[in-house]
């Protein structure tokens, strides 16, 4: 996936730097929402000046990644940086923030959900980080797991809970064929029969996505199909 690295582009607090950790210490991913309508650059500016977290300002943007409303994924800190996004979990977690203000427990001021582009990027960055850090579905959390009920909002929280339970709904043969056909992998007629043509389409899709090429629509294959359609 395409990640835009702004670690050394976004301004830093001139007097502060993050502590660091071995990347091997990371054991979870925590998703957040902005709870406002600013850009990543505006959030960074808020963080490096005196704010609710520190009257001296924080070293930098307080998450490792930010996801813009158009789906762009921004890396703002190195994974070895111990950023300040979730009290009690900072030394062992990666923080990801979605731009936007979404409805959540105790917070009804925002919109119902992130953009479709943001949710596609959520799925992609989570899969990328799970592979990079050897994490599982159960290692993906929301800030609500650690004392912030409104964060990251109802819609993303539902996605997280589904992901933690296995990540993907069961799909019918017809739905599988519809998704493959929509992505340009020709299954022929949508009849629910996983025959030779559909199996070839699955294998071609798996090859293009770097998955195990076995022609079987297992959880990883279905999850990738769902995230792309």
3D architecture notes:
The protein is of the alpha/beta class and 229 residues long. It has 2 domains: 3-164, 3-Layer(aba) Sandwich (Lysozyme-like); 173-228, Muramoyl-pentapeptide Carboxypeptidase, domain 1 (Orthogonal Bundle), CATH 1.10.101. The chain is built from 6 helices and 8 strands. The chain has a 6-stranded mixed β-sheet, with helices on one face. A two-stranded antiparallel ribbon has the order 2-6. It is elongated and about 65 Å long. The mean pLDDT is 92.
Quick recap of the structure?
The protein is an alpha/beta fold and 229 residues long. The protein has helices spanning 40-48, 116-133, 154-164, 173-182, 196-209, 219-228, and strands spanning 3-5, 19-20, 28-33, 65-67, 73-75, 81-82, 93-98, 140-142. It folds into 2 domains: 3-164, 3-Layer(aba) Sandwich (Lysozyme-like); 173-228, PGBD-like superfamily/PGBD (Muramoyl-pentapeptide Carboxypeptidase, domain 1).
Q: Number of helical runs? A: 6
- The helix fraction, in percent, is 25-40%
SS strand fraction: 5-15%
CATH fold name of the largest domain, please?
Lysozyme-like
CATH class of the largest domain: Alpha Beta
Q: Main β-sheet, in a few words?
A: 6 strands, mixed
If strands are numbered along the chain, what order do they take across the biggest sheet? Answer: 1-5-4-7-3-8
Structural class: alpha/beta
User: What sort of overall outline do the alpha carbons produce when their principal axes are compared?
Assistant: elongated
- The residue-averaged pLDDT reads 92
CATH homologous superfamily of the largest domain, by name? Peptidoglycan recognition protein-like
Distance between the termini: 16 Å
The CATH architecture assignment of the largest domain turns out to be 3-Layer(aba) Sandwich
């Amino acid at each position: 996936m395409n990640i835009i690295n702004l670690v050394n582009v976004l301004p830093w607090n001139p007097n502060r730097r993050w502590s660091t950790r071995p990347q091997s210490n990371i054991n979870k991913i925590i998703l957040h929402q902005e709870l406002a309508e600013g850009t990543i650059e505006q959030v960074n500016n808020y963080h490096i000046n005196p704010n609710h977290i520190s009257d001296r300002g924080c070293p930098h943007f307080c998450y490792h990644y930010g996801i813009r409303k158009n789906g762009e994924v921004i890396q703002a800190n190195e994974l070895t940086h111990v950023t300040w996004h979730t009290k009690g979990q900072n030394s062992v977690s990666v923080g990801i923030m979605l731009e936007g203000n979404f409805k959540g427990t105790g917070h009804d001021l925002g919109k119902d959900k992130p953009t479709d582009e943001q949710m596609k990027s959520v799925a992609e960055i989570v899969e990328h980080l799970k592979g990079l850090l050897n994490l599982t579905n159960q290692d993906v959390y929301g800030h609500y797991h650690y004392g912030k009920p409104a964060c990251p909002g109802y819609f993303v929280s539902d996605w997280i809970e589904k992901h933690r339970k296995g990540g993907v709904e069961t799909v019918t043969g017809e739905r599988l064929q519809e998704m493959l056909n929509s992505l340009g992998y020709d299954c022929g007629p949508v009849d629910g029969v996983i025959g030779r043509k559909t199996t070839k389409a699955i294998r071609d899709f798996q090859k293009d996505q770097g998955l195990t090429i076995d022609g079987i629509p297992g959880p990883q294959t279905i999850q990738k199909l769902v995230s792309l359609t």
